[in-house]
Amino acid sequence: MASIELKNVTKIYEGFKALDALNLTVPSGSVYGLIGPNGAGKTTAIRHMMGVLRQDAGSVLLDGEPVFENPSVKARMLCIPDEPYFTSTSTTRDLMKFTRALYPRFDTERYEKLREIFALDDTRPIRRLSRGMQKQSAFWIALAARPEVLVLDEPVDGLDPVMRRQVWSLVMEDVAEEGMTVLVSSHNLRELEDVCDHVGIMQRGRCLLEKSVSELQETTTKVLLALPDGAALPEEGLDILHRSSTGKLQTLILRGREEDNLAWLEKLHPLFMDSVPLTLEEIFIYELGGVDDAVRKNVL
User: Fold this and answer.
1) Distance CA 28, CA 24 (A)
2) Where in the chain do CATH 3.30.70 domains reside?
3) Separation CA 275–CA 262 (nearest Å)
């Protein structure tokens, strides 16, 4: 089991701060969802985690050891990027042999067993495969390598629904049985909600929010509320992240514990009140999408 830490990591490209004192912790054995709008710095952060880029300031650590230019640490980590790289003549078997030479835990027997699941011709050039089949090839090799840390950037784009479920099943099996640590960067928040137990939200090169999914859902409440005629919500007393209304029915997104928020609202003698679970996608939208800078500062 292995944990990843980015401490005050800064990366500047020609005066632009791609990462701005980024602090991020991926707990050992967790499935961590890294989310954020386009340009937030997610892919740059991943390249630092994998030791592809050297930070201008700060540190990137795996179990307390620096990653950059550290082959023994890198041999414990494997990444499937959004656009996997391969030469024009590379086959899945060629990449398998290359990966096997780099990863001491590579399991050739498992590679052969996974052949039944992925059902690809591993002697066929990868460039002749569809995008979805190329992703299958990458997962085939990655799972056979048995890394301690698996980093995934938009991992299941191009896969059909059946193969998506199969791939996630295999990944979660390794998390449960081997204690593998997984970091997933994806815009498919509905899918992340099904597999992740921790989440980090990035914006402008910084991590705005980092919590377990259960804690995040417990501390953000969605309430449907209808108040008596003439009654109104006081300006103080609730931490309102978002408010909208349709007729008398108001929808409130509130920061804080559900029972505390409902107890406070009960004092207003509502005609109707109900608490509705928030999805990860809704939390992301209300944290970043369409909210003003004042709210964003409250998140920090």
Assistant:
1) 13
2) 219-299
3) 8
Task: Say if CB 205 and CB 17 are below 8 A apart.
Answer: yes
What are the distances in angstroms from CA 189 to CA 60, 111, 235, 285? 26, 30, 32, 10
How confident is the model over 189-210, as a mean pLDDT?
Answer: 89
DSSP codes, 173-235: HHHHHH--EEEEE-S-HHHHHHH-SEEEEEETTEEEEEEEHHHHHHTEEEEEEEPPTT----S
Q: What pLDDT is stored for residue 187 in this prediction?
A: 84
Compute how many other C-beta atoms are within 10 angstroms of the C-beta atom of residue 181: 25
Please classify residue 225 by burial: count the beta carbons closer than 10 Å to its beta carbon, then call 0-12 exposed, 13-18 middle and 19+ buried: buried
Tell whether pTM > 0.85.
Answer: no
Report whether CATH 3.30.70 matches the domain 219-299: yes
Helix (H, G, I), strand (E, B) or coil at 168: helix
- Please give the CATH topology (third level) of the domain spanning 4-210: Rossmann fold (3.40.50)
